[in-house]
């Protein structure tokens, strides 16, 4: 593909679609007319830079674009779902107006569908149109693989006050608001009970926000979900998530079977087709994007990444383990082992932490608190506290020296490490 400048003239209701490799940069400039990226308006004559993206820039009334740099593909498409998405937005607007008048909760919408059907894209579009109408909806991402709001591995929510940034997306630094995130891991079938417990934690965090702010309350919630929800094993989890989050309406993209199952279960369902532009992404693409996301977390715009060397004794690490710790023979007579129970078990600080991303929890370490009280936990108390704790942040272990019993810890900003528990998840990364 040529890296020279290319010009594109789009007629009304057309979309310019492109794909760019994670390690290459494509520049896109709107030179005439109006255009938007999933509902966020583009500025005229600004050179937007994209890396590792598959996107579609849509115009309602026609526009001209200019691109330069290498792209995997670029073309103009006319089969879009933008009219349906806009109608959906207006339906939400009506419900918000009604909710405000009656001083009650705004619409709670969940988007469901198989992999690469455009769930996240629709969630972003509805959020963007909402914020363009001065709404402040809550975006809730319960797909632990996606890392839409926080790092992959988490489920999270965030009040969105303005359209999502075209280049930086939902970078919390740009937004100057911290998301609420809970660390889970990747596979929702692995620890189903724990997953639903965290969805419930998210629900509680959202309810607290809604109780404290009438405006947020009437502006509603948009929930993006994992594609596993439409698998046979996922349907019950989907139904429970709908109940927990008190969803009013489920938008099902391109899946009649799920629409019918949910309708039969008494849920309010809207069926939508998949948009013509949706691009599929393979495992390698997802891995590369995950690495890019992690890099942005530590080295992104407005951050001051900071490395410090700490002693093994300065960091207390736990890991999420499924199943009872003690063998059944060691339990008191009559007590059953629960294969689904979740425990946060001790990890010896060692080489095993090298290249790990650690979750920084809010749970204070045992010891003396600010008031001089001595605080100690049993393993069960520790687990209960860690299950309830949302994510304070993440650090990266870049070096481990077993002989000197020291390691190098990278954080996105300077500052001493908090005296809280750290949790080792599944994320490994090579800072290169
Ligand atoms: N109209 C479009 N033109 C070009 N690319 C698009 C368009 N709509 C969506 N995409 C891209 O297609 C890919 C898949 O879309 P999206 O992430 O919304 O799907 P998803 O159903 O949420 O996927 P998953 O289940 O894997 O999370 C994304 O890279 C997205 O940016």
UniProtKB/TrEMBL annotation:
GO cellular component: mRNA cleavage factor complex
Top-rank taxon, per record: Eukaryota
Domain Clp1 P-loop: 113-300
Assigned keywords, A-Z: ATP-binding, mRNA processing, Nucleotide-binding, Nucleus
SUPFAM superfamilies with a match to the protein in the record: P-loop containing nucleoside triphosphate hydrolases
Binding site for ATP: 15, 54, 116-121
InterPro entries tied to this protein: Clp1 (IPR028606), Clp1/Grc3 (IPR045116), Clp1_C (IPR010655), Clp1_C_sf (IPR038238), Clp1_N (IPR032324), Clp1_N_sf (IPR038239), CLP1_P (IPR032319), P-loop_NTPase (IPR027417)
Pfam families registered for this protein in UniProt: Clp1, CLP1_N, CLP1_P
Span of domain Clp1 N-terminal: 9-99
Limits of the Clp1 C-terminal domain: 303-431
Localization: Nucleus
GO BP of this protein: mRNA 3'-end processing; tRNA splicing, via endonucleolytic cleavage and ligation
GO molecular function: ATP binding; polynucleotide 5'-hydroxyl-kinase activity
Function: Required for endonucleolytic cleavage during polyadenylation-dependent pre-mRNA 3'-end formation.
Protein family (similarity comment): Belongs to the Clp1 family. Clp1 subfamily.
Subunit structure: Component of a pre-mRNA cleavage factor complex. Interacts directly with PCF11.
Stated name of the protein: Polynucleotide 5'-hydroxyl-kinase GRC3
Species this chain originates from: Boothiomyces macroporosus
């Amino acid at each position: 593909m040529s890296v020279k400048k290319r010009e594109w003239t789009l007629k009304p209701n057309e979309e310019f679609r492109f794909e760019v490799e994670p390690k290459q940069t494509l520049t896109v400039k709107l030179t005439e007319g109006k255009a938007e990226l999933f509902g966020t308006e583009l500025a005229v004559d600004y050179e937007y830079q994209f890396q590792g993206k598959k996107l579609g820039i849509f115009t309602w009334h026609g526009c001209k674009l200019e691109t330069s740099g290498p792209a995997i593909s670029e073309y103009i498409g006319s089969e879009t779902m933008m009219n349906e998405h806009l109608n959906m937005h207006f339906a939400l607007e009506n419900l918000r107006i009604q909710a405000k008048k009656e001083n009650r909760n705004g619409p709670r919408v969940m988007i469901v569908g198989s992999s690469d059907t455009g769930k996240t894209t629709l969630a972003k579009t509805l959020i963007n149109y909402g914020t363009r109408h001065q709404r402040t909806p809550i975006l809730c991402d319960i797909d632990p693989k996606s890392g839409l709001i926080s790092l992959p591995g988490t489920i999270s929510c965030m009040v969105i006050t303005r359209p999502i940034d075209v280049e930086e997306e939902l970078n919390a630094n740009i937004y100057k608001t911290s998301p609420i995130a809970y660390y889970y891991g990747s596979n929702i079938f692995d620890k189903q009970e724990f997953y639903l417990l965290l969805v419930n934690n998210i629900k509680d965090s959202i309810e607290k926000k809604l109780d404290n702010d009438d405006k947020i309350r009437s502006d509603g919630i948009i929930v993006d979900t994992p594609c596993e929800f439409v698998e046979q094993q996922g349907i019950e989890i989907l139904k429970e998530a709908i109940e927990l989050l008190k969803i009013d309406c489920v938008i099902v993209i391109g899946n009649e079977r799920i629409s019918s199952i949910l309708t039969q279960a008494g849920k309010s369902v809207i069926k939508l087709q998949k948009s013509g532009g949706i691009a599929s992404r393979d495992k390698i693409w997802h891995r590369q994007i995950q690495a890019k996301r992690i890099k942005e977390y530590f080295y992104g715009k407005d951050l001051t990444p900071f490395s410090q060397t700490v002693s093994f004794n300065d960091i207390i690490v736990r890991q999420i383990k499924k199943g009872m710790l003690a063998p059944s023979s060691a339990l008191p007579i009559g007590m059953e082992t629960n294969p689904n129970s979740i425990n946060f078990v001790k990890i010896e600080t060692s080489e095993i932490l090298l290249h790990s991303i650690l979750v920084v929890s809010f749970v204070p370490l045992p010891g003396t608190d600010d008031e001089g009280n001595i605080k100690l936990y049993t393993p069960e108390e520790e687990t209960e506290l860690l299950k309830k704790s949302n994510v304070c942040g993440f650090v990266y272990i870049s070096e481990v020296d077993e002989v000197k019993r020291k390691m190098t810890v990278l954080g996105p900003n300077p500052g001493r490490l908090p005296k809280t528990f750290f949790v080792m998840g599944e994320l490994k990364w090579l800072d290169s």
